[in-house]
Amino acid sequence: MPETANSPGTRPTLRDVAQRAGVSAMTVTRVLRDDDRVSAATRERVLASVAELGYRPNTVARSLRLGRGSGLVGLVVTNLANPFYSRLALGVDSVVGAHGLKTVIGNTRQSVENERDLVADLVGRRVDGIVVVPAGADQRHLAQAAAQGVPVVCASRPPVGFAADQVLVDDHGGAVDATERLLALGHRAVGYLGPPASVHTSVERLRGYRETLAAAGVAVDERYVRQGPVDVAGAEEAAGELLALPDPPTALFCSNNRNTIGAFRAVRRAGRAVALAGFDDFELADMVGLPLSVQSYDSDELGREAGRLLLDRLRGAAAGAPAPRRVVLPTRALQYGEPGPAGPAGARR
């Protein structure tokens, strides 16, 4: 026996609604489009039938028929375990959601191959645009997406090898500020913890660290530089190695919140008085019980700005000025706990 619109597992169609209301399918379409040519009585009857049947328009199918997008925006990030990306996602979604678009999030786990697959899938699903935190320097797949008419906005890390709108943080300037604050406390043995060198933010923050030490006449001790940790456990291990050196650093500059938390755990375990400066604020930073300064910025605003850039492209507002735009958000220093001056060991260089 054939299933009806009310049978379990069957999705009611536009024709089912028309039949229930005793009108044509075109009349149902006009009601759903809020066409004022439909009488109030007919509108009421159609809407009652929609509610009774639980009808929902198939927006994806309709978009495909009309040659339009799906009403979806792809957001591709590298590490959903990092709270930074949840704030970024909220920022993007708050802007595009206000214009009727839905956000679909994909996690690459810092893999360019995963990113390539995700972007191809999103383009295949006809997303209206993509906001991406690139996982690496090989961004040919992003260039291909843009060439196929899917606007791409890069967040936190810039596009490489192709032109696209981008919104970044002042990574270099923030690192300079953080390192200067440690030097002002008298520290000269300053270590560095950061993600792999292939990551743009790590490159810029390490550059700020090196340049600031050099400007102060402090030689960079390469034993104190650790690049690679991408999570708290890795950062804790790397910081532990630094603190186990015969002449360990008296201060650590940690280039993201995962590295800062890992370093804090290592310092606690070692029971040493080590000054910490981090990049990215994080929840409960004021409760760690150690003097800590962090370079903070509005990660929600980073997402909102990326959403605005994407909407401008979708609305064609940037058509008169096709050159890609670059927005850089400033950082500000936050101090948790009272910083103390470096002891004699900190001034040994």
Give an account of the 3D structure.
By secondary structure, this protein is α/β, with parallel strands linked by helices. Helix content is 42%, strand content 16%. It has three domains: 14-57, lambda repressor-like DNA-binding domains (434 Repressor (Amino-terminal Domain)); 69-169 and 299-318, Rossmann fold (3-Layer(aba) Sandwich), CATH 3.40.50; 171-296 and 333-347, Rossmann fold. Strand 8, helix 11 (257-270) and strand 9 (275-279) form a beta-alpha-beta unit. Helix 5 runs parallel beside helix 12. The longest helix has 17 residues, at 299-315.
Share in β-strands: 15-25%
CATH topology of the largest domain: Rossmann fold
Tell me the overall shape: elongated
Number of helices: 12
Q: What's the helical proportion of residues? A: 40-55%
The secondary structure category is alpha/beta
What is the correct CATH architecture of the largest domain?
A: 3-Layer(aba) Sandwich
The residue-averaged pLDDT reads 88
**CATH class categorisation of the largest domain:** Alpha Beta
> What would CATH call the homologous superfamily of the largest domain?
Response regulator
Largest sheet: 6 strands, parallel
Protein name: Transcriptional regulator, LacI family
Pfam families: LacI (PF00356), Peripla_BP_1 (PF00532)
Keywords: DNA-binding, Transcription, Transcription regulation
Domain HTH lacI-type: 12-66
